[in-house]
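Ticket #4471: structure output looks truncated?

Reporter: J.K.
Steps to reproduce: submitted the chain below (232 residues) through the standard prediction queue, then opened the result file.
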Amino acid sequence: MYAPGQIRVSASMNVLDDGFGGVNVFGYVIGGSTLYASGYHATNGVHDGAPLAPIGGGWGSFVSLEEADYQGPTQTHITRRNTYALRNDGTLFRWTLVNGAWRYRASAPGFAAVKTMALVSKSATYDTFVATTRGGALYTIHVPTSTPMKPVVKRVRSSTWQGFETLLAQKCGVYGTFLVGIDHDTNSAYAYAVGRFNGASTVIQGLGKIPGTFPDALYFRWKDPGAPLTGE
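Returned output as attached by the reporter:
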């Protein structure tokens, strides 16, 4: 969609069926030091270009970006939109989107060891990420939606996860998570079936290496807007 290296960081991309055999794709990306809204339409693999709408500058030090949009099981529309971004000094930020405007910024320090993170759960009152550290540990970061922002960190595994530069997660079953780790040094990816995240008691089943190679530097999750994540 873009020139190599033009986009440094991508949040999950929303995908909507247009009703005519095509899809509309939209989400947030960081190019250089600017945050953009990205969006395009595609039919049968042919797209109409992907214009970038700038949202703001000062994003050159951010290394991770994700959107958590919550729609309850009895609700007909999304009732909460939060966007999270990790800065390279280990500070985790959260914004609440109100009518398209980024409001109510909150932050919490202490995540300098995080190598990569992926959203695994969201509810009316919290969002939860799974994260690897440079030392090889696997943690969950549980972030209540209340203010001030006070994340709760739990260790899931103490070692062997340092090889992954990217984590991707998708809902599997009622409380399970299908987790993919991508190693950019070897261009390889591995799949895991994870039970409900519960600290060191979490059940993780290795599903093996995924066939093929993964040479790209940037990967992201495709999602339906408001689709549930219930990994914790």
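Triage note (M.O.): checked the attachment and the full token line is present. The two ends are 34 Å apart (CA to CA).
Status: closed, working as intended.
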